[in-house]
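Lab notes, practical 5.
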Amino acid sequence: MKKFSMIFLLLFAASTMQFSLMAQQTSRMLTLEDAQKISDAAESRAKQDNWNVVIAVMDAGGHLIALRRMDGTQIGSVDVAMQKASTAVKFKRPTKVFQDGVQAGNMHIMSLQGVAAVEGGLPIREGEQVIGSIGVSGVTSAQDGIIAAAGLAAFE
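Output from the prediction step:
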């Protein structure tokens, strides 16, 4: 019986390790190269209209990978861009969803901790998995959203 239990435990451990390895192989992480590509595309779109913005790209854990502040952008946009990116990754949805909710009268959204209810933050997905986010701040929220979408399109 003791021998049977030991064999069972070894087989269970081996199958668990195999599953863990398969999960690691199928989940993609956002790299610095990805973040730079996204930032480059967003900056390029901003320059088309002479908009000065801050672009923040975060990983799936809400940690900053890249931050770009274009010349002439107000320093307050650094925090706002990071808040938008953080909201998008933590809640797995565009920040415009929260903005629209507030504009529709759902003021309780403003009490949600860590929510930036302003357009300009988008989750970055690989299939159904959120692997990061982009947040943009510096112009109007609609313009920030246009720039963030251009950055995201470079990844997809």
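Observations recorded by the TA: The helical segments are 2-26, 32-48, 76-91, 95-103, 141-155. The radius of gyration is 20 Å.
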